[in-house]
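Protocol step 4 of 5: obtain the predicted structure for the target chain.
Materials: sequence only (see below). No template structures provided, no constraints applied. The aim of this step is simply to have a reference model before the mutagenesis design in step 5. Sequence pasted as it appears in the construct record:
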Amino acid sequence: LERVSAFISSTHNNIATAVVALLKEVILSLTREDKQAPKNEESVVVPPSSLIVPIIQMLFLSLASFDVSANTRDCILELFLKTIPVADMANIYLKEGLIEKVLFV
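Step 4 output (structure tokens):
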């Protein structure tokens, strides 16, 4: 995530927005149910919130960073607006106290 954070604060808007779009797809894919997995097999399933929270925290910190361009900040806000209803992210935001960082911005 440190390298991804460096790309988000890049001076090139295309690179930064592409990384944010990639993170959006990662978040959406982690929150979707896997329909191909057999239901009777026992497997170790990592809860998606434990994988998503570090990504979301990094994005919230990027929102408050002065290194991030305005276009990238808009792209991050758009990511939050589009993933909240699709992936039921509101509960994760509230549980982790991440919403305060958005209010700061």
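Step 4 remarks: The chain has a mean pLDDT of 77. Helices lie at 2-8, 13-31, 48-64, 70-87, 90-96, 99-104.
Proceed to step 5.
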